[in-house]
Design goal:
- By secondary structure, the chain is an all-alpha fold.
- The protein has a single domain, classed as Cytochrome c-like domain (Cytochrome Bc1 Complex, Chain D, domain 2), CATH 1.10.760.10.
- The chain is built from six helices and no strands.
- The longest helix has 22 residues.
- The protein is globular and about 35 Å long.
- It starts with a helix and ends with a helix.
- About 17% of the residues have low confidence.
Length: 138
């Protein structure tokens, strides 16, 4: 009798856990693009929120010019105008420098094709901070 009650308790716990997983928003792996479902849930995590802004075609639209992890799992295709967003912590050891690049890339390179997201007020200061956090996770 004891074995069957332990089995039923374990089975119930697994079922409860699986049900909770179906309701909870999907977790996002570090350095990947968040799903539309995750973005619709208005994530509190700054890295995930930044990824949502970066992949929003009406806001950051980073995949129009850059490639990065996670795009291969979607129907979206990356551009090749900008450099791939990989090993960003190694490339930008100073977070302020990366933020400045996103805010206005033409300051570092007047010939840059990257839109000056901050200077032209394409994105808010908070949005730029969130995208910076996401890019550093790549």
């Amino acid at each position: 009798m004891r074995k069957s009650s332990t089995f039923i308790t374990t089975l119930g716990a697994v079922a409860l856990m699986m049900g909770g997983m179906a309701i909870a928003p999907q977790a996002v792996a570090v350095g990947e693009m968040p799903s539309k479902k995750v973005c619709k849930s208005k994530p509190k995590d700054p890295v995930v929120a930044g990824g949502c802004i970066a992949t929003d075609r009406k806001k950051g639209n980073c995949m129009a010019c850059h490639s990065f992890a996670g795009l291969e799992k979607t129907r979206l295709q990356s551009g090749n105008v900008g450099p791939p967003l990989v090993a960003m912590k190694q490339r930008f050891k100073d977070k302020k420098k990366l933020r400045a690049q996103i805010w206005d890339a033409t300051k570092a390179n007047p010939q840059s094709m990257m839109p000056p997201f901050g200077r032209h007020k394409i994105l808010s200061e908070k949005d730029i901070d969130l995208i910076t956090a996401w890019v550093l996770s790549l």
